[in-house]
């Protein structure tokens, strides 16, 4: 109760006081109170903290600690770009940041010097006076500055002058004005570079002076060259083609010219590529004579007869442009269309003798006339024993022909009792007849790549292996030797021979060699990406022979066609 009574008395006194104090006096009391509070804030404002409205080089640092302000200002300057202009150039040669150019500014000393002395603190509102740092910011360089000037700026200080030259403008030549060059003095470039005043509130630019280097060929000399060339060309150049004069318009000639200024004149040369379109369209038909066609009959590699033919004539562009250029230079009054012979077209009719040379010629001409890369090998196993090859020792990736080598190693082990035929017959036949990959890989893993390589090398297949990077590899000659050895019966037992040849006779892929002959064929094909291979024993009525065609980029139809041609000359 006592407390409540005291509160009522205080309220009553306050009301009485308010009624008695005029409003003007209340305002005065309030102002005194505000000033008092402000003085207290100023008196106790931290000495290491900058005033609320202060800036340094246009960067606001108000209410920051001095250490934080120094860090912020240092970072801002480090990231500020300096646009460096050489001489009177309008575009900056370089725009490094202060950090990249090794520059720094004395922000630490200037911020540390920003004080709020006690006597200013006694002045009401002085806390709002300190708006910017005093003194001019100063740049400090470093060894990185020297490196920047040496490696990046000085190389650009050597600006070569541009000699006056010429260009075509319709039916006349006009001068492309000369331009001055310039060079910097190595002794003063650093002084010029560091002469700017750093600031964070406006763009920063450094101006490096350059000494003017005048061009050697001035506009007047280029104009003299233009007048000379226009006098030579006149309204156009007369070119005699096939006995007929053709006037090439001046504007056309000028459009072909390339210009090279020297120290005393501008040299003009005809650009053959630009002249070619006009000359081929307008001039070439005046001198062209179509070549004839010769029919050449070849037997094996020897020409037997040549009928018809006759060379033609075509425009010689290089010699013709050289003749026109002589007129431009004033060395001649007219130009002449030069010609060159065009060899006759040749159609070859190939015939072949039934000899080793004849078959070799067949293979070589076939490879030349068909797309793709070939390795071909042929050997007769009876009769006259002819043999021939084309790139027979060229290595190809085997594709599935490797399965013949695997079959050899399997049957060797069957003959020796190391492997059971009953256990392996189904997979063996799938591997050869259907080119089954799973069975081929299973046998490979069982016997081993190195072992199979050793065994086929022992047969004489010196260019075949499973262990060379990118392989396995073989050649047409190696496959032909393998098949010849198989057919001879010396490879393994007669039973094993019959098992392999039977599987090959049942091969389901018959679009290659089997499609080119009516005789029974025991073969193994391989196809992988662009590779098409066929290795075959052909049981021809005229004698059994081996034919192997390995190819990259060919077709089964081409392989069948080669077989038909071989059959024809046998």
Short summary of the structure?
It is flat and about 140 Å long.
The averaged pLDDT comes out at 91
Q: Can you give the helix content as a percent range?
A: 40-55%
Shape: flat
Number of strands: 27
| Gross CATH architecture of the largest domain | 3-Layer(aba) Sandwich
Strand content: 15-25%
CATH topology of the largest domain: Beta-lactamase
CATH homology superfamily of the largest domain: DD-peptidase/beta-lactamase superfamily
Number of helices: 19
Compute the number of structural domains. Answer: 4
- Class by SSE composition: alpha+beta
Low-confidence stretches: none
- What's the level 1 CATH class of the largest domain? Alpha Beta
> How are the strands ordered across the major sheet?
22-21-27-26-25
Largest sheet: 5 strands, antiparallel
Considering the chains and any ligands shown, give keywords for the structure.
single chain; 570 residues; Ubiquitin-like (UB roll); five-stranded antiparallel beta sheet; three-stranded mixed beta sheet; 41% helix; 23% strand
Outline the fold blueprint.
Blueprint lengths: L1 H19 L2 H21 L11 E2 L2 E2 L5 H13 L4 E4 L17 E2 L1 H6 L5 H4 L17 E2 L2 H11 L11 E5 L2 E5 L4 E3 L5 H5 L11 E4 L2 E3 L5 H15 L2 E6 L2 E6 H7 E5 L4 E5 L1 H16 L5 E7 L2 E7 L3 E4 L1 H12 L6 E2 L2 E4 L2 E7 L4 H14 L3 E8 L6 E4 L5 E2 L4 H15 L4 H13 L3 H11 L1 H10 L14 E2 L1 H13 L5 H12 L15 E8 L2 E10 L2 E10 L3 H14 L1
Parallel strand pairs: 3-9, 11-18, 15-20
Antiparallel strand pairs: 1-2, 4-5, 6-7, 8-10, 11-12, 13-14, 15-16, 17-19, 21-22, 21-27, 23-24, 25-26, 26-27
């Amino acid at each position: 109760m006592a407390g409540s009574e005291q509160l009522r008395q205080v309220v009553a006194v306050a009301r009485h006081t308010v009624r008695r104090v005029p409003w003007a006096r209340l305002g005065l009391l309030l102002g005194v109170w505000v000033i008092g509070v402000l003085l207290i804030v100023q008196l106790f404002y931290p000495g290491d903290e900058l005033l609320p409205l202060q800036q340094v080089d246009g960067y606001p640092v108000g209410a920051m600690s001095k250490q934080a302000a120094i860090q912020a200002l240092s970072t801002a300057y480090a990231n500020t770009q300096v646009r460096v202009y050489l001489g009177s150039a309008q575009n900056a040669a370089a725009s490094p940041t202060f950090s990249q150019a090794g520059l720094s500014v004395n922000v630490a000393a200037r911020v540390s010097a920003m004080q709020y002395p006690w006597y200013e603190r006694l002045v009401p509102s002085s806390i709002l006076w300190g708006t910017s740092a005093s003194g001019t910011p100063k740049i400090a360089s470093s060894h990185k500055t020297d490196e920047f000037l040496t490696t990046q700026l000085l190389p650009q200080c050597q600006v070569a002058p541009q000699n006056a030259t010429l260009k075509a403008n319709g039916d006349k030549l006009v001068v492309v004005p000369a331009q001055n060059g310039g060079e910097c003095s190595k002794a003063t470039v650093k002084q010029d570079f560091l002469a700017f005043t750093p600031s964070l509130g406006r763009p920063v630019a450094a101006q490096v002076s350059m000494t003017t280097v005048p061009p050697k060929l001035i506009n007047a000399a280029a104009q003299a060259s233009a007048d000379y060339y226009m006098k030579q060309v006149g309204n156009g150049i007369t070119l005699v083609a096939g006995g007929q004069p053709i006037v090439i318009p001046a504007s056309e000639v000028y459009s072909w010219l390339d210009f090279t200024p020297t120290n005393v004149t501008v040299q003009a040369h005809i650009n053959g590529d630009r002249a070619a379109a006009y000359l081929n369209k307008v001039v070439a038909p005046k001198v062209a004579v179509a070549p004839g066609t010769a029919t050449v009959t070849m037997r094996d590699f020897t020409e037997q007869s040549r009928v018809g033919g006759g060379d033609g004539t075509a425009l010689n562009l290089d010699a013709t442009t050289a003749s026109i250029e002589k007129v431009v230079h004033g060395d001649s009054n007219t130009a002449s269309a030069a010609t060159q012979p065009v060899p006759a077209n040749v159609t070859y009719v190939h015939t072949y003798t039934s000899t080793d040379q004849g078959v070799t010629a067949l293979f070589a001409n076939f490879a030349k006339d068909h797309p793709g890369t070939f390795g071909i090998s042929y050997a007769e196993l009876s009769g006259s024993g002819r043999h021939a090859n084309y790139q027979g020792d060229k290595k190809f990736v085997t594709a599935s022909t490797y399965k013949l080598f695997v079959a050899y190693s399997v049957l060797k082990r069957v003959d020796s009792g190391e492997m059971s035929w009953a256990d392996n017959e189904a997979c063996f036949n799938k591997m050869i007849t259907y080119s089954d990959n799973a069975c081929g890989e299973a046998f490979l893993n069982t016997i081993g790549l190195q072992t199979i390589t050793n065994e086929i090398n022992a047969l004489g297949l010196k260019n075949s292996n499973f262990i060379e990077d990118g392989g396995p590899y073989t050649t047409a000659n190696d496959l032909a030797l393998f098949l010849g050895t198989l057919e001879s019966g010396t490879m393994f037992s007669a039973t094993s021979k019959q098992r392999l040849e039977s599987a090959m006779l049942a091969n389901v892929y018959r679009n290659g060699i089997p499609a080119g002959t009516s005789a029974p064929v025991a073969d193994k094909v391989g196809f992988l990406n662009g590779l098409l291979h066929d290795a075959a024993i052909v049981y021809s009525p005229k004698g059994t022979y081996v034919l192997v065609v390995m190819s990259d980029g060919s077709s089964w139809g081409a392989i069948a066609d080669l077989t038909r041609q071989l059959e024809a000359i046998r």
